[in-house]
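Researcher: Please predict.
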Amino acid sequence: MRLVRVMCSGRVDLEFILRSFAKGHDGVFIGGCRLGECNYTTHGNFDALAVAHMGRKILEYMGLNPDRLRIEFMSGADGNLLAEKTDEFTKQIRDLGPLGKAEGLDSKRLALKFEAARNLVPYLRLAERERLRVPEKTKAAYETFFAGDEFTALFDDVFSDLWAMGQIMVLLKKAPLSTGDISDALGLNPSEVSRYMNRSSRLGWVKYDTAANCYGLAG
């Protein structure tokens, strides 16, 4: 097991989490100070909690078990609790099995998904600040928000189209593709692909080659 220490759990970024999984780690465990007991006025452990919830939602979109990502809060004196929780998490991950294989995803497909997800991190940071921010940093407020339908609806609204377009962008980096090619690669129906491509074209991300009857990256 690899342990990475940072000064404050509030510095944990979605990119760190996704990069760890992309490198083949079967699980990611985040430990932070007890909520409400942060040594800093920023109370960054609440930010870490928000990041963990978003990370779990991304894993769901990818077809991975969200239980591969866990966050726990404890004090510096809770050495026994840390050992207990990490041992428990290690057993849980072993029971889940290897990342991707246990969920029926081949390595190439999984690599594409992680590349697409990591490319979307800047958009999600902005969305977290503007639309997914919990106004009150209390344990009750965070539990209520992230366990409720409002968070799921907001996250789906922010992420769903970007997720599909992000995967398409990764595919087009490798080679120009037709609507049918994209549809087959991602398991989307052609009408969905056309909708995403029209939006991507308006954003200036892709261009259509009428002679070759395929899409490519713009610029």
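Model: The chain has one domain: 9-174.
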